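Ticket #4471: complex job returned nothing on first submit. Input attached below:
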Amino acid sequence: MGERRYWNEAMETIDAGRLWRLEDERLRWQLRWVWERSSFYRRKFSEAGIDPLAIGRDSLDELPFTTKDEVRRSQEEEPPLGGHACVPLSEVLRVHASSGTTGRPTLVGITSADAMMWNEVLARFFWSTGVRPGTRAWVAVSMGWYIAGLSFYDALQHMHATVLPSSNTEAARTFTVLQQTGVDFMVSSPSFVSYLTNFARERLGLDPGMLGLKAMALGGEPGAGLPEIRQQIEETWRCKVYDAMGTADFVPVMWSECEFQAGMHFLGQGAVIVEFIDPATGKPLEPEEGALAELVYTAIQRECVPLIRFRIGDLVRIEGVETCECGRTGIRIRCVGRVDDMFIVQGVNVFPSAVADVIASFKPRTTGEFQIRLPASGTRVDPPVPILVECGPEAGDLEELKRALQETIRMKLIFRADVKLVPQGELAPTGAMKRKVVVRGDA
Ligand SMILES: [Zn+2]
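Support reply: We reran it on our side without changes. The output follows.
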Protein backbone atom coordinates (compact mmCIF):
# COMPACT_ATOMS: atom_id res chain seq x y z
CA MET A 1 0.00 0.00 0.00
CA GLY A 2 0.93 3.62 -0.21
CA GLU A 3 2.57 3.21 -3.59
CA ARG A 4 3.42 6.55 -5.11
CA ARG A 5 1.15 7.18 -8.06
CA TYR A 6 3.15 9.99 -9.61
CA TRP A 7 6.72 11.04 -9.92
CA ASN A 8 5.76 14.62 -9.05
CA GLU A 9 2.24 14.82 -7.70
CA ALA A 10 2.23 18.60 -7.24
CA MET A 11 3.02 19.19 -10.92
CA GLU A 12 1.19 16.31 -12.53
CA THR A 13 -2.09 17.06 -10.74
CA ILE A 14 -1.77 20.85 -10.66
CA ASP A 15 -5.00 22.78 -11.24
CA ALA A 16 -5.42 25.21 -14.12
CA GLY A 17 -5.22 28.37 -12.00
CA ARG A 18 -2.01 27.45 -10.25
CA LEU A 19 -0.44 26.26 -13.49
CA TRP A 20 -1.29 29.57 -15.13
CA ARG A 21 0.40 31.52 -12.33
CA LEU A 22 3.47 29.28 -12.42
CA GLU A 23 3.69 29.66 -16.20
CA ASP A 24 3.35 33.42 -15.90
CA GLU A 25 6.19 33.66 -13.39
CA ARG A 26 8.56 31.42 -15.33
CA LEU A 27 7.68 32.94 -18.70
CA ARG A 28 8.66 36.37 -17.39
CA TRP A 29 11.97 34.96 -16.20
CA GLN A 30 12.55 33.23 -19.56
CA LEU A 31 11.75 36.32 -21.64
CA ARG A 32 14.17 38.42 -19.65
CA TRP A 33 16.78 35.67 -20.05
CA VAL A 34 16.49 35.57 -23.86
CA TRP A 35 16.23 39.36 -24.14
CA GLU A 36 19.51 39.78 -22.28
CA ARG A 37 21.41 36.91 -23.89
CA SER A 38 20.08 35.95 -27.30
CA SER A 39 21.02 38.07 -30.32
CA PHE A 40 18.38 36.25 -32.33
CA TYR A 41 15.48 37.15 -30.01
CA ARG A 42 16.76 40.65 -29.35
CA ARG A 43 16.59 41.31 -33.09
CA LYS A 44 13.31 39.46 -33.58
CA PHE A 45 11.47 41.29 -30.80
CA SER A 46 12.94 44.68 -31.75
CA GLU A 47 11.91 44.25 -35.37
CA ALA A 48 8.39 43.33 -34.26
CA GLY A 49 8.32 46.42 -32.01
CA ILE A 50 7.68 44.29 -28.93
CA ASP A 51 8.90 44.82 -25.40
CA PRO A 52 9.18 41.20 -24.17
CA LEU A 53 9.57 42.40 -20.58
CA ALA A 54 5.97 43.60 -20.67
CA ILE A 55 4.66 40.18 -21.77
CA GLY A 56 3.10 37.67 -19.37
CA ARG A 57 1.11 34.48 -19.70
CA ASP A 58 -2.08 36.30 -20.71
CA SER A 59 -0.33 38.23 -23.50
CA LEU A 60 1.94 35.41 -24.72
CA ASP A 61 0.06 35.23 -28.02
CA GLU A 62 1.22 38.76 -28.88
CA LEU A 63 4.71 37.38 -29.51
CA PRO A 64 5.58 36.23 -33.02
CA PHE A 65 6.10 32.54 -33.77
CA THR A 66 9.57 31.08 -34.11
CA THR A 67 9.91 28.64 -37.01
CA LYS A 68 12.23 25.72 -37.73
CA ASP A 69 13.70 27.63 -40.68
CA GLU A 70 14.64 30.54 -38.45
CA VAL A 71 16.37 28.21 -36.03
CA ARG A 72 18.27 26.56 -38.88
CA ARG A 73 19.33 29.91 -40.31
CA SER A 74 20.26 31.27 -36.89
CA GLN A 75 22.57 28.29 -36.48
CA GLU A 76 24.19 28.83 -39.88
CA GLU A 77 24.75 32.51 -39.18
CA GLU A 78 26.04 32.12 -35.64
CA PRO A 79 27.57 28.66 -35.29
CA PRO A 80 27.67 26.37 -33.55
CA LEU A 81 24.44 26.69 -31.52
CA GLY A 82 22.90 29.78 -33.13
CA GLY A 83 21.87 33.26 -32.10
CA HIS A 84 19.05 31.78 -30.02
CA ALA A 85 21.63 30.16 -27.72
CA CYS A 86 21.89 32.02 -24.41
CA VAL A 87 25.09 30.52 -23.01
CA PRO A 88 28.58 30.03 -24.46
CA LEU A 89 29.58 26.53 -25.53
CA SER A 90 31.89 26.29 -22.52
CA GLU A 91 28.82 26.23 -20.25
CA VAL A 92 27.15 23.49 -22.25
CA LEU A 93 27.03 20.06 -20.66
CA ARG A 94 26.24 18.12 -23.82
CA VAL A 95 25.50 18.75 -27.49
CA HIS A 96 23.04 16.67 -29.48
CA ALA A 97 22.58 16.72 -33.23
CA SER A 98 19.44 15.85 -35.13
CA SER A 99 19.68 14.45 -38.63
CA GLY A 100 18.05 17.55 -40.13
CA THR A 101 16.03 17.44 -43.32
CA THR A 102 18.52 19.33 -45.46
CA GLY A 103 21.57 17.29 -44.60
CA ARG A 104 23.08 19.79 -42.19
CA PRO A 105 22.40 18.60 -38.63
CA THR A 106 20.58 20.90 -36.22
CA LEU A 107 22.36 21.16 -32.88
CA VAL A 108 20.85 21.37 -29.43
CA GLY A 109 22.80 22.11 -26.27
CA ILE A 110 21.89 21.62 -22.63
CA THR A 111 23.39 23.13 -19.48
CA SER A 112 23.41 21.20 -16.22
CA ALA A 113 20.22 22.98 -15.17
CA ASP A 114 18.61 21.98 -18.48
CA ALA A 115 19.71 18.39 -17.91
CA MET A 116 18.07 18.44 -14.46
CA MET A 117 14.86 19.77 -16.00
CA TRP A 118 14.96 16.95 -18.58
CA ASN A 119 15.49 14.36 -15.85
CA GLU A 120 12.48 15.73 -14.01
CA VAL A 121 10.08 15.70 -16.99
CA LEU A 122 11.41 12.37 -18.30
CA ALA A 123 10.97 10.80 -14.87
CA ARG A 124 7.29 11.87 -14.95
CA PHE A 125 7.04 10.13 -18.32
CA PHE A 126 8.74 6.91 -17.25
CA TRP A 127 6.76 6.80 -14.01
CA SER A 128 3.46 7.13 -15.92
CA THR A 129 4.40 4.04 -17.98
CA GLY A 130 5.11 1.99 -14.85
CA VAL A 131 8.87 2.44 -14.36
CA ARG A 132 9.88 2.40 -10.68
CA PRO A 133 13.17 2.20 -8.80
CA GLY A 134 14.60 -1.22 -9.62
CA THR A 135 12.67 -1.66 -12.86
CA ARG A 136 14.92 -3.36 -15.42
CA ALA A 137 14.70 -0.77 -18.18
CA TRP A 138 16.01 -1.56 -21.64
CA VAL A 139 17.04 1.54 -23.58
CA ALA A 140 16.74 0.42 -27.22
CA VAL A 141 17.47 3.86 -28.61
CA SER A 142 20.59 5.17 -30.31
CA MET A 143 22.96 6.57 -27.65
CA GLY A 144 25.02 9.04 -29.62
CA TRP A 145 24.04 12.32 -31.23
CA TYR A 146 20.37 11.39 -31.22
CA ILE A 147 18.67 13.27 -28.42
CA ALA A 148 16.72 10.50 -26.80
CA GLY A 149 19.25 7.81 -25.86
CA LEU A 150 21.57 9.53 -23.42
CA SER A 151 18.74 11.58 -21.99
CA PHE A 152 16.68 8.47 -21.26
CA TYR A 153 19.71 6.79 -19.78
CA ASP A 154 20.27 9.79 -17.48
CA ALA A 155 16.66 10.04 -16.37
CA LEU A 156 16.30 6.32 -15.69
CA GLN A 157 19.41 6.39 -13.54
CA HIS A 158 18.06 9.50 -11.82
CA MET A 159 14.97 7.51 -10.76
CA HIS A 160 17.04 4.49 -9.75
CA ALA A 161 15.84 2.15 -12.44
CA THR A 162 18.24 -0.61 -13.49
CA VAL A 163 19.39 0.48 -16.93
CA LEU A 164 20.08 -2.01 -19.71
CA PRO A 165 21.77 0.31 -22.22
CA SER A 166 21.74 -1.83 -25.36
CA SER A 167 21.37 1.21 -27.59
CA ASN A 168 20.49 0.23 -31.17
CA THR A 169 23.48 -2.00 -31.82
CA GLU A 170 24.35 -5.66 -31.40
CA ALA A 171 20.83 -7.07 -31.41
CA ALA A 172 22.08 -10.67 -31.04
CA ARG A 173 24.08 -9.87 -27.91
CA THR A 174 21.20 -7.78 -26.56
CA PHE A 175 18.74 -10.67 -26.70
CA THR A 176 21.26 -12.95 -25.00
CA VAL A 177 21.90 -10.46 -22.20
CA LEU A 178 18.20 -9.78 -21.70
CA GLN A 179 17.57 -13.48 -21.24
CA GLN A 180 20.25 -13.46 -18.55
CA THR A 181 19.05 -10.38 -16.68
CA GLY A 182 15.34 -10.44 -17.38
CA VAL A 183 13.68 -7.22 -18.46
CA ASP A 184 10.56 -5.30 -17.37
CA PHE A 185 10.40 -2.27 -19.58
CA MET A 186 11.69 -1.02 -22.89
CA VAL A 187 11.86 2.42 -24.46
CA SER A 188 12.31 2.60 -28.23
CA SER A 189 10.66 3.63 -31.52
CA PRO A 190 8.08 1.68 -33.56
CA SER A 191 10.55 1.21 -36.45
CA PHE A 192 13.24 -0.17 -34.21
CA VAL A 193 10.80 -2.53 -32.51
CA SER A 194 9.83 -3.89 -35.96
CA TYR A 195 13.48 -4.45 -36.70
CA LEU A 196 13.99 -6.23 -33.36
CA THR A 197 10.89 -8.36 -33.95
CA ASN A 198 12.20 -9.54 -37.32
CA PHE A 199 15.69 -10.05 -35.92
CA ALA A 200 14.49 -12.13 -32.97
CA ARG A 201 12.23 -14.33 -35.07
CA GLU A 202 14.25 -14.76 -38.24
CA ARG A 203 17.83 -14.67 -37.05
CA LEU A 204 17.53 -16.10 -33.55
CA GLY A 205 14.34 -18.15 -33.78
CA LEU A 206 13.25 -16.35 -30.63
CA ASP A 207 9.71 -15.36 -29.69
CA PRO A 208 9.89 -11.74 -28.41
CA GLY A 209 6.90 -12.46 -26.18
CA MET A 210 9.11 -14.82 -24.14
CA LEU A 211 11.24 -11.97 -22.79
CA GLY A 212 8.72 -11.13 -20.10
CA LEU A 213 8.43 -7.40 -20.78
CA LYS A 214 5.60 -5.72 -18.90
CA ALA A 215 5.53 -2.53 -20.91
CA MET A 216 7.24 -0.56 -23.62
CA ALA A 217 7.06 3.14 -24.42
CA LEU A 218 7.51 4.10 -28.05
CA GLY A 219 8.09 7.50 -29.60
CA GLY A 220 10.01 9.33 -32.27
CA GLU A 221 7.35 8.64 -34.89
CA PRO A 222 3.66 7.70 -34.93
CA GLY A 223 2.82 4.04 -34.41
CA ALA A 224 2.19 3.28 -30.77
CA GLY A 225 -0.91 5.50 -30.89
CA LEU A 226 -2.36 3.82 -33.99
CA PRO A 227 -4.84 1.12 -32.93
CA GLU A 228 -3.86 -1.66 -35.37
CA ILE A 229 -0.14 -1.15 -34.95
CA ARG A 230 -0.34 -0.91 -31.18
CA GLN A 231 -2.39 -4.09 -30.94
CA GLN A 232 0.04 -6.01 -33.11
CA ILE A 233 3.07 -4.95 -31.11
CA GLU A 234 1.26 -5.77 -27.87
CA GLU A 235 0.39 -9.25 -29.15
CA THR A 236 3.89 -9.95 -30.43
CA TRP A 237 5.72 -8.78 -27.31
CA ARG A 238 2.89 -9.63 -24.88
CA CYS A 239 3.19 -6.35 -23.01
CA LYS A 240 1.49 -3.00 -22.79
CA VAL A 241 2.55 -0.42 -25.39
CA TYR A 242 2.55 3.26 -24.44
CA ASP A 243 2.61 6.11 -26.91
CA ALA A 244 5.01 8.95 -26.11
CA MET A 245 6.12 12.14 -27.83
CA GLY A 246 8.55 15.00 -27.39
CA THR A 247 11.08 17.00 -29.30
CA ALA A 248 14.79 17.71 -29.22
CA ASP A 249 14.05 21.42 -29.12
CA PHE A 250 12.25 21.22 -25.75
CA VAL A 251 12.22 17.90 -23.89
CA PRO A 252 12.87 14.51 -25.56
CA VAL A 253 9.52 13.27 -24.19
CA MET A 254 6.91 15.52 -22.60
CA TRP A 255 3.73 13.72 -23.67
CA SER A 256 2.96 10.20 -22.60
CA GLU A 257 0.09 7.87 -21.95
CA CYS A 258 -0.74 6.70 -18.45
CA GLU A 259 -2.13 3.25 -17.61
CA PHE A 260 -5.57 4.32 -18.90
CA GLN A 261 -4.15 5.01 -22.37
CA ALA A 262 -6.72 7.66 -23.21
CA GLY A 263 -4.34 9.88 -25.15
CA MET A 264 -0.92 11.26 -24.21
CA HIS A 265 -0.85 13.51 -21.15
CA PHE A 266 1.12 16.71 -21.18
CA LEU A 267 3.84 16.18 -18.57
CA GLY A 268 6.01 19.24 -19.04
CA GLN A 269 4.24 21.46 -16.49
CA GLY A 270 6.52 24.24 -15.32
CA ALA A 271 9.11 23.59 -18.05
CA VAL A 272 7.20 24.29 -21.25
CA ILE A 273 3.99 26.14 -22.14
CA VAL A 274 1.82 24.44 -24.74
CA GLU A 275 -0.52 26.45 -26.91
CA PHE A 276 -2.94 25.04 -29.46
CA ILE A 277 -3.49 26.95 -32.66
CA ASP A 278 -5.62 26.65 -35.76
CA PRO A 279 -3.18 25.30 -38.39
CA ALA A 280 -4.77 27.41 -41.13
CA THR A 281 -4.96 30.80 -39.41
CA GLY A 282 -2.33 30.48 -36.67
CA LYS A 283 -4.88 31.82 -34.18
CA PRO A 284 -4.99 30.34 -30.66
CA LEU A 285 -7.63 27.65 -30.12
CA GLU A 286 -9.43 26.97 -26.89
CA PRO A 287 -8.69 23.28 -26.32
CA GLU A 288 -11.81 21.16 -26.69
CA GLU A 289 -12.20 17.44 -26.87
CA GLY A 290 -12.10 16.26 -30.47
CA ALA A 291 -10.52 19.44 -31.85
CA LEU A 292 -7.69 19.23 -34.36
CA ALA A 293 -4.89 21.65 -33.51
CA GLU A 294 -1.29 22.50 -34.23
CA LEU A 295 1.13 22.62 -31.30
CA VAL A 296 3.12 25.69 -30.28
CA TYR A 297 5.71 25.41 -27.52
CA THR A 298 7.39 28.04 -25.36
CA ALA A 299 10.31 27.20 -23.10
CA ILE A 300 10.00 28.62 -19.58
CA GLN A 301 12.81 26.79 -17.83
CA ARG A 302 15.57 26.53 -20.37
CA GLU A 303 19.06 28.03 -20.17
CA CYS A 304 20.85 27.00 -23.33
CA VAL A 305 18.55 27.19 -26.36
CA PRO A 306 15.14 28.46 -25.24
CA LEU A 307 12.61 28.89 -28.03
CA ILE A 308 9.60 31.16 -27.74
CA ARG A 309 6.30 30.26 -29.44
CA PHE A 310 7.98 27.63 -31.54
CA ARG A 311 5.79 26.27 -34.29
CA ILE A 312 6.96 22.70 -34.19
CA GLY A 313 4.75 21.43 -37.01
CA ASP A 314 2.88 18.67 -35.16
CA LEU A 315 -0.84 18.29 -35.66
CA VAL A 316 -2.76 16.69 -32.82
CA ARG A 317 -6.27 15.76 -31.86
CA ILE A 318 -7.33 16.74 -28.36
CA GLU A 319 -8.54 13.62 -26.57
CA GLY A 320 -9.36 15.00 -23.16
CA VAL A 321 -9.22 18.25 -21.20
CA GLU A 322 -10.71 16.99 -17.93
CA THR A 323 -8.74 15.30 -15.16
CA CYS A 324 -7.93 11.72 -16.20
CA GLU A 325 -8.93 8.66 -14.18
CA CYS A 326 -5.29 8.48 -13.11
CA GLY A 327 -5.63 11.89 -11.44
CA ARG A 328 -3.28 13.71 -13.81
CA THR A 329 -4.58 17.06 -15.01
CA GLY A 330 -2.30 17.36 -18.05
CA ILE A 331 -4.33 17.71 -21.24
CA ARG A 332 -4.45 14.57 -23.41
CA ILE A 333 -3.75 14.40 -27.13
CA ARG A 334 -3.15 11.97 -29.94
CA CYS A 335 -0.59 12.84 -32.63
CA VAL A 336 -2.17 13.03 -36.07
CA GLY A 337 1.02 13.72 -37.97
CA ARG A 338 3.52 16.30 -39.01
CA VAL A 339 2.23 19.23 -41.00
CA ASP A 340 5.17 18.66 -43.40
CA ASP A 341 4.12 15.07 -44.07
CA MET A 342 0.50 15.86 -44.86
CA PHE A 343 -0.60 15.75 -48.47
CA ILE A 344 -3.90 16.66 -50.04
CA VAL A 345 -5.71 14.53 -52.60
CA GLN A 346 -8.71 16.25 -54.16
CA GLY A 347 -9.35 18.30 -51.05
CA VAL A 348 -8.84 15.45 -48.59
CA ASN A 349 -5.99 15.75 -46.08
CA VAL A 350 -3.98 12.55 -45.76
CA PHE A 351 -1.37 11.66 -43.14
CA PRO A 352 1.07 8.78 -43.70
CA SER A 353 0.24 7.49 -40.19
CA ALA A 354 -3.35 6.83 -41.29
CA VAL A 355 -2.06 4.89 -44.30
CA ALA A 356 0.24 2.93 -41.97
CA ASP A 357 -2.65 1.81 -39.83
CA VAL A 358 -4.72 0.63 -42.83
CA ILE A 359 -1.80 -1.37 -44.22
CA ALA A 360 -1.04 -2.85 -40.81
CA SER A 361 -4.65 -4.08 -40.62
CA PHE A 362 -3.79 -6.44 -43.53
CA LYS A 363 -1.15 -8.39 -41.62
CA PRO A 364 -0.09 -11.15 -42.21
CA ARG A 365 -1.02 -10.60 -45.88
CA THR A 366 1.30 -7.56 -45.72
CA THR A 367 4.22 -6.98 -43.37
CA GLY A 368 2.94 -3.48 -42.62
CA GLU A 369 5.91 -1.88 -44.38
CA PHE A 370 5.08 0.62 -47.12
CA GLN A 371 6.28 3.68 -48.95
CA ILE A 372 4.26 6.54 -50.39
CA ARG A 373 5.68 8.11 -53.55
CA LEU A 374 4.91 11.80 -53.93
CA PRO A 375 5.99 14.45 -56.45
CA ALA A 376 9.22 16.30 -55.66
CA SER A 377 7.36 19.23 -54.11
CA GLY A 378 3.93 20.52 -53.24
CA THR A 379 1.27 19.18 -50.92
CA ARG A 380 -1.43 18.72 -53.55
CA VAL A 381 -1.22 15.32 -55.20
CA ASP A 382 -3.27 14.00 -58.10
CA PRO A 383 -4.81 10.57 -57.69
CA PRO A 384 -4.04 7.77 -57.88
CA VAL A 385 -1.27 8.06 -55.28
CA PRO A 386 1.47 5.45 -55.79
CA ILE A 387 2.06 3.35 -52.67
CA LEU A 388 4.51 0.46 -52.44
CA VAL A 389 3.35 -2.22 -50.03
CA GLU A 390 5.44 -5.13 -48.87
CA CYS A 391 3.88 -8.59 -49.19
CA GLY A 392 3.62 -10.54 -45.95
CA PRO A 393 4.27 -14.22 -45.26
CA GLU A 394 0.63 -15.05 -46.10
CA ALA A 395 0.01 -12.69 -49.00
CA GLY A 396 -2.41 -15.00 -50.85
CA ASP A 397 -3.69 -13.91 -54.27
CA LEU A 398 -1.71 -10.80 -55.15
CA GLU A 399 -4.24 -9.28 -57.54
CA GLU A 400 -6.93 -9.66 -54.92
CA LEU A 401 -4.68 -8.22 -52.18
CA LYS A 402 -3.88 -5.18 -54.29
CA ARG A 403 -7.56 -4.62 -54.99
CA ALA A 404 -8.50 -5.04 -51.33
CA LEU A 405 -5.83 -2.57 -50.20
CA GLN A 406 -6.92 0.03 -52.75
CA GLU A 407 -10.54 -0.44 -51.83
CA THR A 408 -9.91 -0.10 -48.08
CA ILE A 409 -7.78 3.00 -48.56
CA ARG A 410 -10.53 4.51 -50.69
CA MET A 411 -13.19 3.70 -48.10
CA LYS A 412 -11.32 4.65 -44.94
CA LEU A 413 -9.09 7.48 -46.12
CA ILE A 414 -11.18 8.75 -49.05
CA PHE A 415 -8.46 8.82 -51.69
CA ARG A 416 -7.47 6.69 -54.64
CA ALA A 417 -4.20 4.78 -54.32
CA ASP A 418 -2.24 2.84 -56.89
CA VAL A 419 -0.82 0.00 -54.81
CA LYS A 420 2.27 -1.77 -56.07
CA LEU A 421 3.14 -4.93 -54.16
CA VAL A 422 6.83 -5.61 -53.54
CA PRO A 423 8.46 -8.80 -52.19
CA GLN A 424 8.87 -9.28 -48.46
CA GLY A 425 12.13 -7.75 -47.20
CA GLU A 426 12.33 -4.99 -49.79
CA LEU A 427 11.17 -2.27 -47.38
CA ALA A 428 12.14 -4.03 -44.15
CA PRO A 429 13.32 -1.85 -41.24
CA THR A 430 17.08 -1.56 -41.28
CA GLY A 431 17.69 -0.87 -37.62
CA ALA A 432 17.28 2.91 -37.88
CA MET A 433 15.20 4.69 -35.26
CA LYS A 434 12.77 6.09 -37.84
CA ARG A 435 11.17 4.90 -41.06
CA LYS A 436 11.05 6.87 -44.26
CA VAL A 437 7.51 6.31 -45.41
CA VAL A 438 7.22 9.23 -47.80
CA VAL A 439 9.62 9.44 -50.74
CA ARG A 440 9.54 12.56 -52.86
CA GLY A 441 10.53 12.78 -56.51
CA ASP A 442 11.07 9.99 -59.01
CA ALA A 443 12.72 7.53 -56.66
ZN1 LIG B 1 -4.14 9.46 -17.09
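The two ends are 59 Å apart (CA to CA). Closing as resolved unless it happens again.
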